[in-house]
Amino acid sequence: MAEDSILTYETLYDILRKEKQESNLAKLDSDINKMFVTYLKSKISIFKKDRVSMSSGKKEYAKKEINNIRRLYKELLEKREKKILELAYLRSKMSVKEPINNIENILEEERKLLQKIETILIDNRENLILPIVNGKMPQPTIDNTPNPKQNNSDINNNGNNNNDNNQNNNS
């Protein structure tokens, strides 16, 4: 797909088909996510603008088309995500590997994901798997990763939990 092309349902379908056929990441425009959001917004905008004058059959068709566009793109992203997971796993087992910047057809967002997953897998291998297979108990590590379910509004600007402040004030 050329840099100046516009995303359509047909091109989206072709991109997904190509991604499914290739074992490595397929080449995408660097701004594919932006192109998709623009395309989806335009489809939704057209639907909202014209829905009053549309017949019920055309409304259903338009809704189905928007849902299919979302489904296709989600499938594309999940297919690429799976390839990145596999790549991270393979790279985490290698002692010598090419720099992440040299990986072909990886988008910047995907590069960051690959780096994070690879780091987690290497850490797991070094701190859990290797000690155990060498007859040693793994050392407990401090988990600094944020809990995705943690509500950020519960933390004030100083990084203190508001519940801790309330307890201190009630004492």
Short description:
The protein is an all-alpha fold and 171 residues long. Helices cover 61% and strands 0% of the residues.
Helical stretch tally: 5
Mean pLDDT: 83
**How large, in whole angstroms, is the Cα Rg?**
23 Å
The shape is: elongated
The description of the largest β-sheet is: none
Q: What is the number of E strands?
A: 0
Summarize the amount of helix as a percent range: 55-70%
Low-pLDDT windows of residues: 152-171
Order of helices and strands: HHHHH
What would you call the quaternary organization? single chain
First and last CA, distance: 65 Å
Strand composition percent: under 5%
Structural class category: mainly alpha
Notes on the protein architecture:
8% of the residues are buried. With 171 residues, this protein is mainly α. Helix content is 61%, strand content 0%.
Topology:
Layout (H helix, E strand, L loop, with lengths): L8 H13 L10 H19 L5 H38 L14 H26 L28 H9 L1
Helix pairs in contact: 1-3, 2-3, 3-4
Features:
mainly alpha; 0% strand; elongated; 171 residues
